[in-house]
Amino acid sequence: MKLHLLLCAFFFSALHAAEPFLEKSAVFPPGMNGIARYRIPGIVVTTKGTVLAYSEARKNNSSDWGEIEIHLRRSTDGGKTWEAGKHIAHHGARLEGNPRKKEGGEREQTVNNPVAIVDRETGTIEFLYCINYARCYSIRSTDDGLTWSAPVDITATFEPFRRHYDWKVIATGPGHGIQMKSGRLVVPIWLAYGKEGDHKPSAAATIYSDDHGKTWKAGDLCLPNEGDLGNPNETMIAELSDGRVMLVARSVSQANRKLITTSADGATGWSKPVFHDQLWEPVCMASIVSHPSKPGTLLFSNPHRLPLDKDGKEVPAGRGKRENLCIKLSRDDGKTWPVNKVLDPGKAAYSDLAVLPDGTVLCLYEAESSIDCARFNLEWVTQ
Question: For residue 266, what are the domain limits?
Fold first, then answer.
């Protein structure tokens, strides 16, 4: 009788186990709305379950500098279909000036590095972005991304970092920020202090808000450009099961691995940065997100490539190819990453992750020429 009950329970659970699935759609194809190339993806899910996908709309080419806007698309069916794209930033007075261009740059406005943060307590979406890598602005939506407030200049937030580096360049994210269980909003940032417009040498930190985005403050510099760290910059963020905040940063290091540091409050007391051997670094922005299925579950996305010489040996401080985008899974707050699943074996670069209320994972990523959204479940990752 017991065997019969066990067999029935087994078959019942097998019948009701979710089938693995993977679906993809093009969200920001080149040419849409007259844009030559969309880059730098970000994605969040609002408290109402609406998906907001956003990116830099690079009007004339794929360069980091040029005439660039921030565009957003909404989805109310979990990322299956998408509303028309909207230009959401910048709608304030134009700030022109591209120092990387000999002619015509004085008439260009580069709006860059968009970051959304969902406030679970108010339902508001806070949204930060920069202009010409020199000023930072905040806008807000109280209607699930349909409309946005006038921009507020929050560049003064970055001034405390000058005691470390006399920065010429500032950038938020890119990707998304988080709200901690305490209610604090935290956004990773990076800054560069070389020649005007240069993105290196660089260092990384966080800014935070304890009043639902009304004001922002600078945290401690957590990833200085010292020793073996190698110009830390584009950084992703997640809250761990014990409430700590973990940063995973890009750098150009001898180790060819992502940098890890943690903090109890997302702003101060950062741990000594270490390289994680399982998180390969092709010198490319990656993403990380917590999954509600089980405490300590994290997902990570990044091109899984290392720089190799003609004999197949790893090249220290090299640059791996931006291809073979993979999803990694950790069940122990990022200590180990035993699962690595290929999402796109072709050319692929920047990515951002979000999770729907039903546990479905969304990965908005740069494919060969467009920004695509992949929908999948944990069963697909572990299949």
Answer: 20-382
d(CA 359, CA 362): 10
Structural domain includes residue 1: no
d(CA 12, CA 101): 64
The string of DSSP letters for 203-240 reads EEEEEEESSTTSS-EEEEEEE-S-TT--S---EEEEE-
Confidence band (pLDDT; 50, 70, 90) for 60? very high
pLDDT digits (tens, 9 = 90+) for 254-263: 999 999 999 9
Give the residue-averaged pLDDT of 237-242: 98
What is the C-alpha to C-alpha distance for residues 194 and 164, in angstroms, rounded to an integer? 13
Confidence of residue 314 (pLDDT cuts 50, 70, 90): very high
pLDDT in tens, 92-123: 999 999 999 888 899 999 999 999 999 999 99
Nearest Cα residue to 57 out of 48, 49, 66, 47: 66
Residue 15 within any structural domain of the chain: no
- Residues 112, 172: Cα–Cα separation, whole Å: 8
- 58 inside domain: yes
**DSSP category for residue 198:** -
Decide if 273 contacts 228 (C-beta within 8 A).
Answer: no
